[in-house]
Write a sequence for this structure.
């Protein structure tokens, strides 16, 4: 078959020369403007080695907006209109939102076996937990499940969970509480039945968090770079996991001190397993790797 036959079959009357490949590249200068902005506004460090990654992540936005180059996108993004309309998409592209139900389960075991019995002995009635950088909700819903299970066997206690994040996109997902069914594979069957409803769609199986669990969670936008964190000052437990890793050490120390100002004395702070607070000037006692108690 000749090339002309293929062209005839395609039947759109267009020649290949009517198209051009998208060859644009995120230049060093444009990358620097984005990376400075990302660091200043969100605290996320973006060294030059991340240029190709950012280029890849922005490509879909550029295509969706039918733009022709990264510079065109940059000019739009930094314009007044772009700052109003594009921040939502930009943030969901720039942030890494990977999370899981029962991720790093050592913290949930500690909560159930150490922290909650201790609070009960101290006569605590309402336990307040903050999932800071909660992503799409798997972390705060896991906290709610663990709390609910504990309280069923220890009546008289109640709890609230606050989830905050910088990305409105993930906060919307958390509020919806709908997940691909495979994401709850690791949860024991009894718990799945108790806390999730299955969709009838068997081709694209999803689950929805039961309304009673959803009601225990409040969600709010919070940027760790903000001067003031508009949340309560007396949390019993704060989860701040797998987000400090994106910040430099100075920013980490500043964020942790602010979180400590929201944690009651004797309360617990959990960080992610690849994160460390070694040699930082923070009012915390190290209980176990990644588990800290407010002095
Ligand atoms: C990798 S997820 C971690 C989710 C969850 N804590 C966990 O461990 O599974 C990191 C989250 O941090 C959020 N984040 C990044 N920078 C932030 C900032 N400056 N303030 C608040 N949240 C931020 C991202 O939007 C993302 O949802």
């Amino acid at each position: 078959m000749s090339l002309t036959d293929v062209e005839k079959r395609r039947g759109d009357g267009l020649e290949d020369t009517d198209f051009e490949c998208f060859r644009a590249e995120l230049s060093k200068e444009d990358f620097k403007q984005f990376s400075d902005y990302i660091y200043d506004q969100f605290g996320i460090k973006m060294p030059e080695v991340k240029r190709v990654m950012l280029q890849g992540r922005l490509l879909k936005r550029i295509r969706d907006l039918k733009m022709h180059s990264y510079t065109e996108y940059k000019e739009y993004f930094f314009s007044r209109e772009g700052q109003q309309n594009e921040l939502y998409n930009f943030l969901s592209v720039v942030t890494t939102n990977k999370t899981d139900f029962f991720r790093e389960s050592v913290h949930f075991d500690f909560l159930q076996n150490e922290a909650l019995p201790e609070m009960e002995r101290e006569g605590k009635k309402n336990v307040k937990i903050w999932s800071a950088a909660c992503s799409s909700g798997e972390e705060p819903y896991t906290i709610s499940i663990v709390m609910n299970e504990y309280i069923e066997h220890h009546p008289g206690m109640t709890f609230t969970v606050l989830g905050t994040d910088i990305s409105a996109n993930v906060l919307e997902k958390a509020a919806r509480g709908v997940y691909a069914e495979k994401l709850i594979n690791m949860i024991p069957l009894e718990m799945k039945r108790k806390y999730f409803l299955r969709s009838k769609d068997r081709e694209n199986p999803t689950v929805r968090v039961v309304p009673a669990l959803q009601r225990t969670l409040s969600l709010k936008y919070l940027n760790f770079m903000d001067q003031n964190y508009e949340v309560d000052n007396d949390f019993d437990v704060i989860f701040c996991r797998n987000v400090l890793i994106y910040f430099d050490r100075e920013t980490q120390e500043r964020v942790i001190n602010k979180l400590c100002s929201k944690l009651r004395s004797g309360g617990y702070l959990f960080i992610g397993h690849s994160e460390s607070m070694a040699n930082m000037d923070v009012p915390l006692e190290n209980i176990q790797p990644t588990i800290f108690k407010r002095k």
